[in-house]
Amino acid sequence: MRSTSPRGCARGFGVGFLVAAAVYDLLIAGGFGGGLWLPAAVLLAGLAAVLWPVERRPPWLTPQLRTAGPALLSVLFTTAVLLTDRAEVPFGPGEVVILLSLLFIAVRHCPWPWALLCGALDGAALLLLPVRYFRSLQDEMLAFAVIGLILIGLTAGLAAYLRSLDYRRTVAVSETRRAERVAIAADLHDFVAHHVTGILVQTQVARMMADRRPQEDLDPVLAGIERAATEALASMRRTVGVLRDTGPEAADRRPVGDLAGISDLVARFASPVQKSVLHRDPAVSDDLPHEVQAAAFRVVQEALTNVRRHAADATRVTVRLACPGDRLEVTVTDDGHGGTQLPEAAHGGGFGLVGLTERVTALGGELRAGPRGGPAGEAGAGWQVRAVFPAGEP
Question: Domain boundary residue among 112, 135, 158?
């Protein structure tokens, strides 16, 4: 047995109430002996404007037309009653509720300044309703006018409040999207910088080996250059695609890494002159929070990129993933002495570790980078980057 949602019940009740109120208006008009076609035209136009389903609404039926059209018909009807010698024409609750509904729609959904113009027209049509029955300025007419002003104020105030909430929600969504796009741009920098630095280093290695090694020894190096260039282009293509797509599915295609990707990252880093090793504690689970895995991947990626930039003489790089207690520990060490042959422009701006520190501390972790120290603690025995994350939900 299907259950009816509260929203569906409320909508059904509202439709039934409006239709019943409009029928009551026609019964009142018929009891006074006047023609029914003018009141029926006004009520039908108002009901169509309020109740027309969104999914079936034609493009030309804009909020401005929906709210101004029935109100204009109501004003013309009132003007026709005043200019003719017809008897008093009553007004009922149906037209009142319809005009208040149109006022609400105008204030909340019409673009500015149409919201002000259409809202004023709906309010004026509502205030002119008593004129059809009270031909002269009487106490009853003033009482109806005061009540009308109160209803107009309450309706317009509620609609304006909800419109402000809609605006705040739109601003919040825009800011969230902007922050996400900035983060994606940072990801693009991390991916491309890593791959391009690898291409540069392997190209230098190939040039040194060209005169000293046989051709077959160059094939792995050239294959690594081709693979790194392909991955860089793929990363750029994915990231640019996400930046162009603002739909809800864009976040699912964000090119982030995880713990499984660290193994490939370390394997691709190896070269004929540099050995890279990954030691992963069996206690490190693949079910860690997504944010923690992505941050761990970034730590390893940035550390390996810095080895290529600043320690090209390193012969061994070790990456360790451990899980002491309820924390994930990521350590990247090398045995380089800081020797590098990269051009000055390829050294980077020094903001990689800064951004990495912000990412790690935002998850409640800590990041340290500095000389590793040899057995006796002497300087120049390599470099170490160490990050520790809470293993639970951040």
Answer: 135
Assess contact for 194 and 301: CB atoms under 8 A.
yes
Which helix (H) or strand (E) is 382 found in, with range?
none
Instruction: Give me the pLDDT at residue 105, please.
Output: 93
Assess if residue 261 is contained within a domain: yes
Q: For residue 260, how many other CB atoms are within 10 A of its CB?
A: 10
What does the pLDDT look like over 54-105, one tens digit per residue? 888 888 889 999 999 999 999 998 888 888 766 567 778 888 999 999 999 9
Number of structural domains (the chain) is: 2
The residue with tokens 């922050």 is 179
Whether 113 is in a domain gets the answer: yes
State the pTM of this model.
0.51
Residue 70 lies in a domain: yes
**What is the residue-wise DSSP string for 148-190?**
HHHHHHHHHHHHHHHHHHHHHHHHHHHHHHHHHHHHHHHHHHH
3-class DSSP state of 367: strand
Q: How far is CA 356 from CA 68, 334, 350, in A?
A: 56, 19, 11
Task: Decide: 104 and 126 in contact? Cβ < 8 Å.
Answer: no
Residues forming a β-bridge with 317? 276, 334
Q: Which of 82, 102, 135 is the last residue of a domain?
A: 135
* Domain range for 18: 6-135
- What pLDDT digit, counting tens, does each position of 331-341 carry? 999 988 766 55
Give the model's pLDDT for residue 356: 76
276 within domain boundaries: yes
CA angle, 119 as apex, 115 and 125 as ends, to 5°? 155
Q: Which residue spans within 248-382 are E strands per DSSP? A: 275-280, 316-322, 327-334, 366-371
CATH assignment of the domain containing 291:
3.30.565.10
- CA dihedral over 233, 235, 236, 238, signed as positive or negative: positive
The pLDDT of residue 385: 92
Q: Which of 381, 260, 387, 371 is nearest to 331 (CA)?
A: 387
Average pLDDT of the residues of the chain: 78
